[in-house]
Amino acid sequence: MRVATEVGERPARGARGATGGETIRAAVFDLDGTLANTLPAISKLLVKVASEQGCSVTARQAATAIGKPPGPAFGRLLGRPEDDERVQAAISRYRELFSYEVLCQGPQLLFPGVTAGLSALRAHGVELAVATSKTFKQLARIGGSAP
Fold it and tell me: Is 69 helix (H, G, I), strand (E, B) or coil?
């Protein structure tokens, strides 16, 4: 993508694409694994919650559950049906701890260059959005402030 960087060069409304012909007016980014390195923290939390339910889960096993709805994810990790009492307890515990175990790391989770890159896109008039299943409140905690 071409971004105006020379002194005195005025940014156009939108940024030029790689070929220079098209103008990018909007961009949508995924959060987990794209903007923020949340996967290790989420994996660690999944292992912890499974352990509390008496199941030994590896980080690799936990990683396969990331991005899936909580019922199927914990059902698979705990080897139980989604409506099982232990699965429901694990989901509740995960939600309870998420802020303390993952979100507390906030902007530290962002990959290097993300803040500067998003700022440059915004400065060039590109509308930005995040596609994620996280709530607006959770996004604000990871990004340091709500957009």
Answer: coil
pLDDT in tens, 59-78: 999 999 988 888 999 999 99
In whole angstroms, give the CA distance from residue 75 to residue 64. 12
Beta carbons within 8 Å of 60's beta carbon, 6+ residues apart: none
Query: The pTM is what?
Result: 0.68
Confidence band, pLDDT 50/70/90 cuts, at residue 104: confident
Instruction: Judge contact between 51 and 57, C-beta under 8 A.
Output: yes
Q: Does residue 127 sit in helix, strand or coil?
A: strand
Helices 136-143 and 85-101: crossing angle in degrees, nearest 10, is 40
Cα–Cα nearest to 50, from 41, 59, 37:
59
